[in-house]
Design a protein that fits this description.
It is a single chain. By secondary structure, this protein is of the alpha+beta class. The termini are far apart. The protein contains 3 helices and 11 strands, in the order H-E-E-E-E-H-E-E-E-E-E-E-E-H.
Amino acid sequence: MTTYNHSSSYNRTYEKKVIEETPRIRVTTQSSPFTTHIIPSSFPSFPSTFGGNISSIHATDESLTATMDVSQFAADDLKLMGTCQLQVSVIGQFIVVEAKHPEKADEFGFIERHFIRKFNLPRNVQPEGVSSNLTSDGTLTIQAFPLKPKDGSPARAIPIKIVSGSSMNTPSSDAKTEESK
């Protein structure tokens, strides 16, 4: 009668060594900054072009400022609104950014994009305190600042103002723009 060793220590030791020596990537989810997931570096990673690239975000209980690259949804296409849509709205306690465009040709064939990105509305900010701007180079800036509280907070669409120039505005030029309003 033949017996087989089903618990080979060599394979288990080798596997453990490979797992321990593999570089890790630590990922923090947007839902909870305190929860992290460790993903082996062998896991394929691709640039995040889905859901718009978030260039910067600054959020506190008092305000939120987020900058996103939505250049895949060209400003010229946005004017037509029949072929491409970009929308910012407040639904409940979330600022929701949604964009989509129909199938169009690119260097690899055809592509159709659609994303929905949600930001938590800051605790001390009312939905009426949310505004958004879109530059000609495809940078969407969303700002939320506190206003005097009002009764009732129904969902409302946030208009997107198309501004000239690039997204590299200086803080002093932003202040001048606000003063001229």
